[in-house]
Amino acid sequence: MGIPGLNLFLGIWEGSHESRSGYWLRWWNPEGELLLWSEERAQQERLRADREYDRAQRLAEKLRQAGIALDDEE
Known about the structure:
- With 74 residues, the protein is of the alpha+beta class.
- The protein has 1 helix and 3 strands, in the order βββα.
- It has a 3-stranded antiparallel sheet with strand order 1-2-3, with no helix packed on it.
- The chain is elongated and about 60 Å long.
- The mean pLDDT is 91.
């Protein structure tokens, strides 16, 4: 079932949410991708930020090993 003009489709998703498991009505886009709840988006963003932080730390360590001083270490 879709909403004309909005390109949103209502479909069934099986999983857990708010400590309840079962089937849920969820919104999907035309490409068949599930539209995330706000908690899911926040969790994805935290994971992305953690990966970027780890990457920045590894890069900073490589620069230090190469003898390059970082701005915050002067």
